[in-house]
Amino acid sequence: MVDRFKNFICRSYIAVIMFFLYAPILVLIVSSFNASRSRVIWGGFTLRWYVDVFSSRSIMEALYTTLAIAFLSSLIATLIGVTGAIGISAMRLRNYKIVMAFTNIPMLNADIVTGISLMLWFVKFMPLGFSSILLSHVTFNIPYIILSVMPKLQTLNVSIYEAAMDLGANRVYAFFRIVLPELTEGIIAGFIMAFTISMDDFVVTYFTKGAGVNTLSTMIYGELRKGIRPELYALSTLIFAAALIVLIIVNIFTERKPEKSSGRL
Amino acid sequence: MNKTITGAMILICLLAALTGCAKGEPENSLTVFNYGLYIDESVLSQFEDETGIRIKYEEAPTPEELYTKYKSGAIKYDVLCTSEYMLQRLINEGELKEIDFSDMQNVSDIGEEYWEFTRSFDPENKYVMPYFWGTVGLLYDKTKVHGDISSWDVIFNGEYAGDFIMPNSMRDAYATALKYLGYSLNTTDEGELREAQELLLSQKKDVSAYLVDEARDEVIAGNAAMAVVYSGEAYYAYEENHDFAYCLPEEGTNLWIDCWGVTRHCENVENAKKFLDFLCREDIAWANYEEVKYASPVKSVMARMSEEGLASDAINPSPEKLAKCEVFIQLPEETTDLLSSLWKELKAQ
């Protein structure tokens, strides 16, 4: 009896949390099928916004910029972050601590401070535009890569790297065949985290963007006064669906992994 | 080994692409700053196709935001559109360039009365060009009110206690009270302002909420019988459902007008003038009106408008009512300070 009650409490707790997390998204999805432009009147079911969204030049440009920035910035940040992490992990303890502290600053710093200082810096040297957004996103993405690769590096057994060299591999070969595969999980996790953080970012982008360049977040912000276009509900629904599908695929993929390795044993 | 080389190649390509982006600025371009959703997007590409001038388009949600972004100087805007009091501030600060409107053929299609409105802050009509205009009035649900709604009286006499929404912006809120009392909404008289404050304080218990942009949706959703809104919002509600109507109170109200100006950063004034003139062309002004649904100062738009629109006080108010309306002008500092402290007192109660 007590157990059943406890069970009930647990389940309702989860249900309430899920409700608070997903109810707003559900409202958004429902609105994306609403034929009326109003947020509060149901004007019938329509797929019109899903068609319109692809013919709007500004939305498509903003989507392209958002994805391009997210992809390029996390790729560059990954290259810099991984090499940086390897270097840092080889440092003596005192230097290691100092460098790690500095690495974490962009992550702990308030976005608005990062954004404004980057803007002041950029306006002195270059016109603001796509490249200034990209550079600032690389800046705040690097710590996330280092943070997710570092634990992998610390558990890495240096002996296998040395063994590879003993067996005739040169440094580069040993790095790509022995060290890198060990780090892959951390690198992928860091890349995905950087990608999502870059896509989410509004504050830093808002300050460092140039004229005529918009990401989805800055575009939506500009439209708040007159209400958001329903096309953007449709786009948000599509992005949510894409994220959900990726998540499901990743889950299926990781569930199968243990079977594989047990088969190899 | 091969992999390091490919890796290095990718990096070099990326860096090259980066610097390439920074240098590839097109020469013949115009940076335009406007409120969000305040233009028909396709008009911009049409302008690019017709003139070969590339437009870099930027949006801001509020006049204050637009001003801050402009003043930060990170982006050199060429032309911008904002509200009258912000334009006045920009003119006073020397941020706008004089424009010679005489050789712009489409601009002459703007009605004389609108140049008259802007003269309150641009006395010689040399800085700004009217774009959209409107009033502040009452949006109400016909099914929930009794009798005629024609005066600010309905929000001050307690008749609709708990069922109306006041604006959550200082000057709009005081404008309703000042106009109801028969004063100018640009008054600098402390006695008049304190009288308005008394009125707003006594009204506060009846106010269901102080809102800005959400006010319209609250009325559409049926959560309030009436709300103080911008006329454009009211016409939008009317198009959703014909049960909604707009009242331009007989005591008069605030008339707002959003205009374009050319900033001092603009190097190619000819391009800017081409753009402003283009906005007044019959087909373009009509497309913008259809998208934004605010009243347009362009005569050809009024001529094409439906009976419905012309009959609405939201789009086409009668001249007698307009005569009692006033444009906000920037208040002297002491009045602004007094107003701010009164507003804080009102909201804190």
Q: What is the tally of beta strands of chain A?
A: 0
The poorly predicted ranges of chain A are 259-265
With helices defined by DSSP (H or I, 4 residues minimum), what is the helix count of chain B? Answer: 16
Q: Give a quick account of the main beta sheet of chain A: strands, pairing sense, barrel closure.
A: none
State the shape of chain A: globular
List SSEs of chain B in N-to-C order: HEHEHEHHEHEHHEHEHEEHHHHHH
Query: Can you identify the CATH superfamily of the domain at 57-228 in chain A?
Result: MetI-like
Question: Which structural class should the secondary elements of chain A be placed in?
Answer: mainly alpha
Query: Mean of residue pLDDT of chain A?
Result: 89
For the record, give the distance between the C-alpha atoms at the N and C termini of chain B, rounded to a whole number: 74 Å
Task: Summarize the biggest pleated sheet of chain B.
Answer: 9 strands, mixed
The CATH homology group name of the largest domain in chain B: Periplasmic binding protein-like II
